[in-house]
Design a protein that fits this description.
Length: 70
């Protein structure tokens, strides 16, 4: 997954917190509470963390069509 390293708006480092957020949310915890505990308080950073989507599985077939392997 391509994880955003920094917030696109303010530039704060958020990439180090993304794995823990993803793990805890998949375990059933509330994303808002997890972000509070990770001390992600700015709404721009929270937006970056919550709205990140894994697109590599959707993009990969087009890359393979354009660049066929040996």
């Amino acid at each position: 997954m391509l994880v955003p390293i920094r917030c696109f708006t303010c530039g704060k480092l958020i990439g180090d917190k993304f794995t823990e957020l993803e793990t805890r949310v998949r375990a059933g915890e509330d994303p808002g509470k997890v972000l509070d505990e990770l001390q992600v308080s700015r709404y721009c950073c929270r937006r970056m963390m919550i709205t990140s989507v894994d697109l590599i599985d959707q993009v990969l077939p087009y890359y393979q069509q354009k660049n066929p392997g040996p």
